[in-house]
């Protein structure tokens, strides 16, 4: 029976594999090719070499969006994971109503980013209006607005992962640390965090990649205002490709650079955190 299953396994995998080839591999290869071309549609592409990449690097708005996105990714990474870990630690204690609180904190993750962006835009502009300003008038209002929005949305999801990590720590390890006289902070940094590194690796990876790839919340909350100063990389690529006639190739080149950047940063982060994981 097992031999028969193994024999027909490639047949079962074939539909998914074909969908992956058609939906990802072929468009990905075509996207790399088009980044070296000038085109308006995929049928009239003309090879132009590295001119698109040159224009991408010379675009000051694109360079600004990179640093703006990098700062946002780092800030959101720290805030989301610190708060999520603190909530997970609190909700794994013996206290009443923990399941209710877990559900409440997780619920914002179920709301779409576009909807959240417009909701928080109304909230922030309602507050800022009392001080005679608005989100669209200052890039840093938009920056911290995005931080609050994304943190509110993602903290509950990361909290669930941290809760799973905390609950997977063997009880005898914590008891041994208690017997050895380890204090609260010693147990946290010498026992809990090292034993939770797999969960930390996952949460940091998700937070970092989500921070760099953020698009819908940026579009609905600030739309890059004022004057594209709050425009993040994904939105900049979108506006370049669809908003500037004759710049489709440049937008595609930016997309390739964006992909390489996110993959490189993610791999570095995974290597750094996985190297600190310990075997239980």
From the N-terminal CA to the C-terminal CA, the straight-line distance is: 35 Å
Instruction: Indicate the structural class.
Output: mainly alpha
Amount of helix: over 70%
Question: How is the main sheet built?
Answer: 2 strands, antiparallel
Rg from alpha-carbon coordinates? 23 Å
User: Given the C-alpha coordinates, what overall shape results?
Assistant: globular
Mean pLDDT across residues: 87
Q: Output the number of helix runs.
A: 12
* Widest sheet, order of strands: 1-2
Please give a quick description of this structure:
The protein is mainly alpha-helical. The chain has helices spanning 2-34, 51-58, 60-91, 98-106, 113-128, 139-167, 171-179, 184-195, 197-213, 216-221, 233-243, 248-274, and strands spanning 37-38, 46-47.
Write the layout of secondary structure elements.
Elements: H1 2-34, E1 37-38, E2 46-47, H2 51-58, H3 60-91, H4 98-106, H5 113-128, H6 139-167, H7 171-179, H8 184-195, H9 197-213, H10 216-221, H11 233-243, H12 248-274
Antiparallel strand pairs: 1-2
Helix pairs in contact: 2-12, 3-6, 3-9, 4-6, 5-6, 6-9, 9-12, 11-12
Explained architecture:
With 280 residues, the protein is mostly helical. The chain is 75% helix and 1% strand. The chain has a two-stranded antiparallel sheet with strand order 1-2. Helix 3 (60-91) runs antiparallel to helix 9 (197-213), helix 6 runs antiparallel to helix 9 (197-213) and helix 11 packs antiparallel against helix 12 (248-274).
